[in-house]
Design goal:
Blueprint: E1 2-8, E2 16-21, E3 30-38, H1 41-47, E4 61-62, E5 66-74, E6 92-95, H2 105-108, E7 140-143, E8 149-151, H3 158-161, H4 167-178, E9 185-189, H5 193-204, E10 209-214, H6 217-226, E11 230-233, H7 240-250, E12 256-261, H8 267-275, E13 276-284, E14 306-309, H9 318-328, E15 338-343, H10 347-354, E16 365-369
Parallel strand pairs: 9-10, 9-12, 10-11, 12-13, 13-14, 15-16
Antiparallel strand pairs: 1-2, 1-4, 3-5, 3-7, 3-16, 5-6, 6-8
Length: 370
């Protein structure tokens, strides 16, 4: 049996689709047939060459980490998912987008997203090495023995669940770390897939006000559907001072208890910190690349304000993300976050259409459908 994989062979070059022999499933492993794979912002960063300092593997990098699928084959010894639910061929599943060694000091404390031994998503990304199908951009993904996998509830569609193992998990991890509480004021910088998830989670937790900031009217409209009580269009409020003042007005002069940065622009840190109320928290999630800088006035931190960062999520958080979707998907339009679907064969068109750097794009979250 053969299947296709998408491989990045060199930066600033088209992605390649290779056809490879699907390996036999070893004991403890799971082979998943991909049904929907999300194009994450980190994929776009890599594709456009923002990570040129990171050498590509000899065989090229298998691409994609976000997505969902159905069990194609179970290795011997696998009969349940990681919650003990019966698992069989044909079952729909979601799996952790990260890998971990399970032995370092961070992993044994549960912080698998901080694993010191592996590079999270891209630990085994060499397209020329077993098990070959190690990215979601392809017909299959091979989950090695011990990789967390969970059966997907029937009531969730692929479109609702596909971003769960990256976008939604990452946002929920950060908001939990920030300890958001009911009746607090929240500002979300950026209303793409992660921003909309943050708005939905904040609404679910009972935030008093949720202010979404973006420059695209369709995204701001969708932000309101997810529960944003206020929106700030950066085209109408062009300067940081205007946006800071608007947040003060919305919060009755107090400022925000939580500002979540999901754009990836260093300049937004100073702006976000100035939006905070005393004891407020600025949560950095969007800046995943080195080299970006920010200038923050230290005096802004003297009244209890804090800056924290969060990367990906603890693998054990994924069932909570799925439970959150089950409880809220009828009231929050998660299916609308997937705005564009592309055949796997059109992967280069999908990336070109999804590109947001230096321009607007109609894509909120694009997915590849093998």
């Amino acid at each position: 049996m053969k299947g296709r994989v998408v491989v990045l062979k060199q930066y600033h070059a088209p992605l390649e689709i290779q056809e490879l022999e699907v390996p036999d499933v070893e004991p403890g492993a799971v082979l998943v047939r991909t049904t929907m794979a999300g194009i994450c912002g980190s994929d776009l960063h890599t594709w456009r060459g923002d990570q040129e300092g990171r050498a590509l593997p000899p065989g090229g990098r298998c691409f994609g980490h976000e997505g969902t699928g159905v069990v194609a084959a179970l290795g011997s010894g696998v009969s349940t998912d990681f919650l003990g639910n019966p698992l069989k061929e044909g079952d729909r599943v979601i799996y952790s987008a990260t890998v971990s060694c399970r032995r370092c000091r961070y992993c044994i404390n549960g912080d698998t997203n901080l694993c010191s031994q592996h590079n999270l998503v891209y630990r085994r990304a060499d397209a020329g090495e077993f098990p070959f199908f190690i990215g979601t951009f392809g017909d299959y993904i091979y989950l090695e023995p011990g990789h967390p996998v969970f059966r997907t509830p029937d009531e969730l569609s692929d479109a609702e669940v596909a971003p769960a193992n990256c976008a939604y998990g990452t946002v929920m991890q950060g908001i939990r770390r920030a300890d958001l509480r009911a009746e607090q004021h929240v500002v979300v910088q950026g209303s793409g897939g992660l921003g909309l998830a943050a708005i939905g989670i904040a609404r679910h937790l009972g935030a008093a006000t949720i202010t979404a900031i973006d420059g695209q009217a369709p995204r701001l409209e969708l932000a309101r559907e997810f529960g944003a009580t206020h929106t700030i269009d950066i085209n109408a409020h062009a300067s940081p001072d205007e946006r800071i003042e608007r947040v003060r007005e919305i919060t009755g002069g107090h400022g925000a208890d939580l500002v979540v940065e999901l754009v990836g622009l260093g300049a937004l840190m100073d702006e976000g910190v100035q939006m905070l109320a005393p004891n407020g928290t600025f949560l950095e999630i969007g800046n995943i690349l080195g080299g970006s800088t920010a200038t923050v006035q230290p005096s802004m931190l003297l009244r209890g304000r804090r800056i924290i960062g969060s990367a990906m999520y603890r693998q054990g958080l994924l069932p909570d993300v799925i439970d959150f979707l089950v409880r809220t998907h009828r009231e929050l339009p998660f299916h609308k976050i997937i705005s564009h679907q592309f055949p796997l064969a059109d992967v280069n068109q999908a990336f070109s259409t999804s590109e947001w750097s230096g321009r607007d794009t109609p894509v909120i979250r694009g997915v590849l459908v093998p």
